[in-house]
Design a protein that fits this description.
This protein is an all-alpha fold and 121 residues long. The protein contains 5 helices and no strands.
Amino acid sequence: MTGTGNSMLYSLLLFVVILSLQEMYRGKLASTELFTILGGFTSSLLFVTFLTFIGNYQETIGVKTGWGSVILAEAVAVIAASTVHRVCITTCFLFSTGLLYEMNKLSGMMLSKSESKGKRH
């Protein structure tokens, strides 16, 4: 597994790459309805990578994460989506909500798995 520092670095680099590509192809993403939905999805990927960066940074400095980091990551993703098209804002929010739900479910599953391993020993 990668450490917190490596994960923080990789998520920041991925955030920059996705944001750069989204801005480079902004005209193409705004050209049709399907590409507009794709623009919202890429913005929701920005949400996930930035949320990962914030979570790892807060873990590194010893601060407890909470809803503030989720709201900040969502705000950054929605602002990035607004540079592409207005509809991208809505689709970004919907995709981000779904991805956040899945991340929370996965986190709970991993936490319960690690707790059950600790009880066995």
